[in-house]
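can u do me a favor
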């Protein structure tokens, strides 16, 4: 019998520390200049243009308090968060750099047109979704992509997802579900516009486990805006999203996420960048649960007993944002339950795309260089699928390797017979 899932079951002593901007900036004094963050930085390892997170983050922040240093511009940072995850002194390095981006924009630095467009994936999805076939044709036209690059700075070869339109919503409206315990699933702006198969798989797996799924909203979490420092228009959007999710979260039940970037944004970035630490915001933040984390904590036995053999070769790449959750790699533990699966783990720290980072024509080569190790491993292993929890990583991996990249729940759906 299914029992009520409370938020407390997913709390951890290693959960992401909630910090506001004051705490983020004050953490720079904990930096001992050991250099471990520079050693692990995927950007600094492939280009001399970026001096590394130590210099751009806590070290430069001491000088920013006095004057602006353009030569230590924070905008080459991809925001992957690896530096923060390896710091032995708990310095909020990535957040310090992101705060510096926002300060720079407030002081007059202009954000590129292309970045402003990419910062609004919900708007892109809705407009392109009006005529999906035409949109896909146009966005795959070499001449048009060349012109777009010239006009906006979005690289002509940057990996764009396929536009679907409101496919998931139409499917979900007519989908028959069991009359079991209700659980909420956050689809964000990606599922309906670009990734309907991930949404169908998540609902299918939860239905298989006896849940009746609610989809409270398709609002965007606005992470691209936050990570690029465009904070002013983000606050109203973030408040609207918290309001939309609060009725579900206030029941002390988890809200399931299949996007590690969206879940990390609501879990910790609203408080870090927008100082949203009110009771309603924290209630929602505490309700956020990664899909694979939820399945690992609650349904390992169910999946083990029902998983059917899948004789496939798959490579799993854990996205950078997953480290910020401090939950390990729950997808790996779930995939290991599938009989016959030949699973290899990624040896790369980062795929390179960094959300919207790899779309910028001035950063595209850096992003591609960062991702070389992963693409080389994929080519050597020759998997049937590359498994990854992040949508932008999947789009980039598939575009650069020509190997289909799917979310872990899609493979679980296949194994559970919920095709």
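np, heres the sequence
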């Amino acid at each position: 019998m299914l029992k009520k899932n409370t938020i407390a079951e997913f709390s951890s002593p290693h959960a992401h520390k909630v910090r506001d901007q004051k705490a983020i900036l004050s953490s720079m004094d904990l930096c001992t200049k050991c250099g471990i963050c520079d050693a692990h930085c995927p950007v600094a390892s492939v280009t001399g243009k970026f001096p590394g997170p130590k210099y751009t983050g806590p070290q430069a922040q001491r000088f920013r308090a006095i004057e602006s240093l353009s030569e230590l511009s924070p905008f080459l940072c991809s925001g992957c968060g690896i530096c923060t995850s390896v710091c032995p002194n708990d310095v909020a390095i990535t957040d310090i750099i992101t705060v510096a981006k926002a300060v720079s924009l407030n002081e007059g630095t202009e954000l590129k047109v292309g970045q402003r467009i990419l910062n609004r994936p919900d708007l892109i999805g809705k407009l392109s979704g009006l005529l999906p076939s035409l949109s896909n044709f146009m966005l795959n036209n070499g001449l048009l992509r060349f012109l777009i690059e010239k006009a906006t700075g979005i690289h002509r070869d940057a990996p764009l997802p396929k536009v679907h339109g409101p496919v998931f919503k139409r499917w979900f409206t007519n989908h028959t579900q069991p009359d079991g315990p209700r659980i909420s699933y956050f689809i964000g702006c990606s599922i309906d516009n670009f990734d309907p198969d991930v949404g169908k798989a998540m609902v299918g797996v939860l239905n298989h486990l006896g849940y009746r799924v609610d989809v409270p909203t398709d609002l965007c979490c606005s992470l691209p805006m936050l990570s690029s420092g465009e904070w002013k228009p983000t606050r109203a959007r973030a408040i609207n999203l918290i309001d939309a999710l609060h009725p579900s979260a206030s029941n002390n039940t988890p809200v399931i996420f299949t996007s590690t970037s969206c879940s990390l944004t609501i879990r910790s970035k609203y408080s870090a960048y927008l100082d949203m630490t009110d009771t309603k915001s924290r209630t929602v933040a505490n309700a956020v649960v990664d899909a694979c984390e939820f399945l690992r904590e609650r349904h390992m036995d169910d999946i083990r007993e029902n998983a059917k053999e899948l004789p496939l070769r798959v490579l799993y790449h854990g996205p950078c944002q997953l480290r910020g959750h401090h939950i390990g790699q729950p997808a790996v533990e779930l995939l290991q339950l599938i009989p016959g699966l030949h699973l290899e783990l990624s040896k790369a720290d980062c795929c390179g795309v960094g959300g919207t980072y790899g779309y910028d024509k001035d950063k595209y080569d850096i992003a591609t260089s960062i991702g070389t190790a992963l693409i080389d491993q994929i080519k050597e292993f020759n998997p049937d699928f590359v498994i990854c929890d992040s949508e932008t990583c999947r789009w980039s991996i598939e575009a650069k390797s020509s190997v289909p990249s799917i979310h872990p729940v899609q493979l679980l759906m296949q194994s559970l017979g919920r095709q």
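The longest helix spans residues 234-249. hope that helps!!
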